[in-house]
Amino acid sequence: MKITKEEYNSISKSVKTFSYNPTYSLRVNRVACTYEIFVNDMLVDFSFETGNSAGEQTAGFAQYILRSGKQKIRVRVYPKAIKPGELETALSPDADLSVRVVHFEFGKGKPADAPQVYVAKLPKLTDKLPYFEWTGEFIADVPYTLKGWSDGVDLSKEDHRALEKEVLEASERYKKAFEQKDVPTIANMIYNREKEVAQAYFFVSGKEGNYDHGWEKLEQETKNTTKMNPIAGYSMHFFGDGKVVSLLQNKGENRDFPAIYGETADQENFYGLLFYRPKAGAALEVIR
Q1: What is the reported pLDDT for 109?
Q2: Buried/exposed 123-136: b ≥16 CB within 10 Å, e otherwise
């Protein structure tokens, strides 16, 4: 598949809108702990920073809801950080984490008034635990259906060493494309992902977040990138009930951040690539 500039810039033109165009997001407040939160077995939010959150923090995850109905949520709470990425050995009795799931339509109403479909809180701990985990469910009502990774192969059943080699090769191809300012390769790798993300967030043509000049944005992003760092210090992680795989950094202040990252004149940019195999024998493709 060879995606043209015109096709990439037309992504938003295919986005459908409805009478209510909701996006779902987390509201998280943490004290004396760190955490990971998964929705439908996809990592949607995490923090291994020191200190406490400055009030309730927001993380959108509409791209991980493929269709209406029951959605799974899993929250894993870890000890607080001594320094970014380095944790104490056990959870503190003072640890506190509250999680809400809300939905609202951008540009309509106040986010503070968004209806909530899930609320949970870390119970008071009395034992010294290395972590605490809970699971739950909530109902999402979205007006679209995304294919996503739903028909993908269960990668967790494949040879892990061979799979990791394949994931690394695909990640290196993306990294090399950024180094060489090769926008056609980048656009082809992420096109299917961007189409579904655009629909999940209702990034319609002419409005904020649209792809009307998406190709030019990629050109500018590669132009601004002064250095792509080596892909190292990572672990391979399975998501989406084994159908999705990614390389994430495994320690330090960037724990759980993507293994692919580059630098501009004033910041680091991380490129999260989540791969799936659409059918047995097919090559890995970027899905999120």
Answers
A1: 78
A2: eebeeeeeebeeee
pTM for the structure as a whole = 0.95
Q: Tell me the average pLDDT across 157-181.
A: 98
Confidence band of 161 (pLDDT split at 50, 70, 90): very high
State the Cα torsion 194-230-173-63 to the nearest 10°.
-20
What proportion of the chain, given as a percentage, has pLDDT over 70? 100
The pLDDT confidence band at residue 111, using thresholds 50, 70 and 90, is confident
